[in-house]
Amino acid sequence: MKIQDILLAVVVAFIWGFNFVVIELGLDSFPPLLFSALRFVFSAFPAIFFIQKGSVGLRWIVSIGLVLGVVMFSLLFVGMKIGMPAGLSSLVLQIQSVFTLLLSSFLLRDAPTAVQKLGISIAFGGIVILVFDSIGEGRSSLVGLCIVIAAGLAWAVSNILMKKAGRINMFHLVIQMSLIPPLPLFFLSFFFENGQIETIADISLTGVFAIFYTSIVSTVLAFGFWGKLLSRYSPNVVAPFSLLVPVFGMLSSWVVLGESFNNREWIASLCIFAGLLVIVAPRDALNRIKSSLALAMQRWE
């Protein structure tokens, strides 16, 4: 990759990582379902008027919009609202990579390799540690943790739908599918939340920033940049940069929100990150690491 494209990929990862901090700030201004609905309204408008119509099939727009936009983001926002810290949420949500492999194996007959199975085991080990930590003295709510894990599962289902849709323009899909979630989310907010009109009428600068960042910066700009990278390089080259998202998420939550992590949370985080690294890293990169370790062992002997 060219150096400017590497920097662009890192910038996108930072935008998505810092997004979890912004969500945390936004949840202080909005109830979660209303926040999610507003985010998608401004993700769709006015960007929808500047993209090619009909570039993505309607059934994929609707199905992915419902699963990813309504289910996944509702669960993520609710999970964070009831106690899941932003930094840990940015990491735990990446369990979607594990669920995607498992669903691909069952639904698409795309069995994971032995190395990927190892990565799945390591990542799930980290999740188990977090579960027991939440039951004990951990800061993260067990219910919140389970809800964010469920959000990862919903994300994985949307990944399967994208695979079945074939080659599609990711940026166009994100903008068009943003038309789907607002009405269902406003409907759910009407029944399960209150004070929506007062919240919007008394919106703070923090609330305005949260809506702007999550809709325009994190969605329109970041997915636009990511789509540009995918048009230039293989997904195997671009995808590993997504591993930087939880790194930036945890660092920014520490700097901005003052979040800290106990020893069990650090161990769990390292397990999840290591498992994801094994799953996502290209096979040739793993082979190079394996060869380097073998050479180091020979020199040691």
Q: What is the string of helix and strand elements?
A: HHHHHHHHHHHHHHH
Helix content: over 70%
Number of strands: 0
The 3D shape can be described as globular
Please give a handful of descriptors for the protein shown.
301 residues; mainly alpha; 15 helices; globular
What this model shows, in words?
The protein is mostly helical and 301 residues long. The chain has 15 helices and no strands. The two termini are 36 Å apart.
Annotate the secondary structure layout.
Blueprint (H helix, E strand, L loop, with lengths): L2 H24 L5 H13 L13 H24 L4 H7 L3 H12 L6 H22 L6 H24 L4 H8 L4 H11 L3 H6 L3 H28 L2 H4 L5 H14 L5 H18 L2 H18 L1
Short description:
By secondary structure, the protein is an all-alpha fold. Helices cover 77% and strands 0% of the residues.
